[in-house]
Each structure stands twice: as structure tokens, then as C-alpha cells.
Amino acid sequence: xxxxxxxxxxxxxxxxxxPNGQKQNDRVGLGWRPELTAGILxxxxxxxxxxxxxxxxxxSPARARSLKTLAAHAPIxxxxxxxxxxxxxxxxxxxxxxxxxLVDLVQPESWSEHLAFVRAGDIEIGHLxxxxxxxxxxxxTAANLxxxxxxxxxxxxxxxxxxxxxxxxxxxxxxxxxxxxxAASNSALxxxxxxxxxxxxxxxxxxxxxxxxxxxxxxxxVHISGGKWIQNQSKDHRRILDDHLHxxxxxxxxLLSALAAxxxxxxxxxxxxxxxxxxxxxxxxxxxxxxxxxxxxxIEQAA
Amino acid sequence: xNTPDLEKFLARLYIDPETRRRFLDSxxxxxxxxxLTDAQCRALEQVDRVGLEMAAHSLSIKRSRKR
Lengths: 303, 67
What we know:
The complex is a heterodimer.
Chain A: H1 3-17, E1 27-31, H2 37-41, E2 49-53, H3 61-73, E3 76-79, H4 93-106, E4 111-114, E5 117-120, E6 123-129, H5 135-152, E7 157-159, H6 174-185, E8 189-192, H7 193-202, H8 207-212, E9 219-224, E10 228-231, E11 238-241, H9 250-262, E12 268-271, H10 280-302
Parallel strand pairs in A: 1-2, 1-12, 2-3, 3-4, 4-7, 7-8, 8-9, 9-12
Antiparallel strand pairs in A: 5-6, 10-11
Helix pairs in contact in A: 5-6, 9-10
Chain B: H1 4-15, H2 17-25, H3 27-33, H4 38-45, H5 49-66
Helix pairs in contact in B: 1-2, 2-3, 3-4
């Protein structure tokens, strides 16, 4: 028997023997933020992977090289926020080149970007915006992702985004647009469960029905985070804002279990926190809760 | 129906209060003034007004923090 075959069998045996139902390679991790540096580095035994915002390192070779040091201690994935893949305008070549250089330097496990447009012409929106959900944006996004793949040398996983506004001039719903875009670009889905949850609540969809409509065989990575209710000026409507300043709400953990029950792939779950930082033990407790949520789903899958 | 022009119009709608005010007063006319097609203008008449207000407000907070 070849060595590789033997190793594969050993790995499968280990996975079958895992007592708690969790697949051997399911992992949980944290988004790397300067405020969390000390906490993350002193608890790498409880953090399987670290997700780094790529743009923070685009224009500083010294900082980028520091990521190599981090990568020696923990698996790293890179996350882009500025490329604007979901647009009928071509993705910005200079930014893609920067991403390519960073990926080449750091050699992350994977990289990802959002299914959003962030600029149009000379207008910088300043945040992720949902494009009109049409055939045009499906095709243009696939073309942009193909361009990214050729320049960076690997395909990004693409993330569903949260939106407070039902994207104007759309002619299909979000699950349909996501399915079509993923198929047209042959991309993996970085499934943000709080974005899915917030959009579902804001636009009157059952979040579990939304989840079941997605191609879960394309999911390997997951984001969880939290948000808050906001109201309009006349205070007669409220919606969930995905602000990454709060703990993931209970329904997000329920969705994680439901995902783990249906997804055939090992999952890497990243907890995102962008401010109002609690003590690191609080975040570690959320990672532990995510592990339990995955375990529950895996047990259901195995039953 | 989506074109780069439509995305440009949406970007302006999200970040420019004056464009937004004119649009909410007369959606079709403001979109047409920007050069969008009849189909795009008609689609924009159905805009999610509550979402537009909330998204624009949230965006203005984020943009002011970045400055």
C-alpha cells in the first residue's frame, strides 16, 4: 500500500473514532485584531485558526512579514474587504496585485472576499453594498472572480453579505442569486451565518429555509458574529444591523448546528469581533459554544 | 438590466443626502436625470425606502468614523 493511501486510511479511522461526533478537522478561530493580539497569542491552545484582514497589510511590507511570524504559530486565512467582486465593473487590478503579493508572501491556507460592490466609478461607498441581484451581476461577478483566480493564483471563498436595504432593481431573491453566482464562478461559499440571519429577519424569510436553499457542499468556512436592532427615523420599522460589536445571538448557533448536520465538509468557523472587545475568556467561551454547536450538528448527521 | 451606471447611481444614492432627497421626492425623474434606462428607472421606483434610509444612515456613521 502506498504511503499516502495508508495515511488517508489512518485519517479516516481517526475521524470515525472521534467520540463526540465532531469531524476531526472541524475548527474554530478568531479574527485577528490588534486589540486581541495578546489574548490570542496566549490562548492558541483553544484557537485553531486565525483570520487576518488582508488590507491591513497591503501597504506595509514590514507588517506583512510579521504575518509570517504569526503563521509559524497558528494557521492563517486571509480575508479581503475592498476588492468589490460583485460588480459589473472590473475588479481593481492594483488591489488584486496587492492581494497576490500578500498571498505569495504569507502562504495562507486560503483567502476570501465578499460578494459586494464597494465603489462605482470614482465613488467610494465606504462599506460593503449588495449589488442588484440580476443575471448581469451573476455573470460579472463570475468574471471578476475568474480574474482574481488568475492573478492571485488561487480562488477566493466568497462571503454572503448583510444588507439593510433590499438591493434595488433586483429580479431574484438572495438564495437564488447566491446559488447562481457560486455555480457560475465555481466558488466556495464563506457562509456568514449572522449575515444570513440578519437578512432573513430583515426581509421576512425563515433563516433555516434560507440555509437549506444554499449549496452546502460548497461551504468550508463560516463566520459568526453579532449585531443589534436599529430603527428608522420615524421609529415604525426596525432591522438588525450586523455590527460585529455583540455576541452571536442564539439563532446563529442554532444555524451552525443545522449547517453542521447537513454540510459534508470539515468546517472552519471564525468568530468576528470588530470593537467593544470583551475579555478574551469571553470570546473563548463563544468559541467553545461554537464547537458544541458543530458537535450537535455532526451527531445529528451521523444518526 | 444592471449596468455600471446603475451601480454608480446607487453609490451616489447611498452616500449623497441631496441625491437621496431628490430621489425620494421623484424616484423615476431623478434616476432618468442620471441617464438610467426606462426599465432601471421603473425598477428604482419600487425601492425599499425604509432600507434606504437605514442603510444611508449606517453608512454615514461608518464614513464619518473613517475620516
